[in-house]
């Protein structure tokens, strides 16, 4: 179970960092005000949605793992 906790925690950190990077890209575009033909937010928006899903998935895995661990400890107590 420790491996699952470490993997999901690592996944949360990585997804959070990638999400932050995508957000920084949007902010950079918003402050530089390029012409409308140069702005393509579709790739960034897709990346943000993917990372949001990754964060949700890793959070669910972490919660499930911790709940299973709690149950095992309750059984052993």
What would your notes on this structure say?
- The chain is mainly α and 77 residues long.
- Helix content is 86%, strand content 0%.
- The protein has two helices and no strands.
- The protein has helices at residues 2-32, 42-76.
- α1 (2-32) runs antiparallel to α2 (42-76).
- It starts with a helix and ends with a helix.
Task: Count the DSSP helices.
Answer: 2
Major sheet characteristics? none
- Give the C-alpha Rg: 18 Å
SSE string: HH
Overall residue-averaged pLDDT value: 84
Low-confidence blocks of residues: none
Concise synopsis of the structure shown:
This protein has two helices and no strands. The chain has 77 residues and is an all-alpha fold.
Which terms would index this structure?
mainly alpha, 0% strand, single chain, 77 residues
Write the layout of secondary structure elements.
Elements: H1 2-32, H2 42-76
Helix pairs in contact: 1-2
């Amino acid at each position: 179970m420790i491996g699952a906790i470490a993997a999901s925690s690592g996944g949360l950190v990585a997804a959070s960092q990638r999400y932050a990077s995508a957000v920084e890209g949007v902010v950079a575009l918003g402050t530089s005000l390029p012409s409308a033909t140069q702005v393509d937010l579709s790739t960034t928006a897709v990346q943000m949605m993917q990372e949001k899903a990754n964060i949700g998935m890793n959070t669910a895995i972490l919660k499930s793992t911790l709940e299973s661990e709690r149950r095992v400890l309750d059984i052993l107590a």
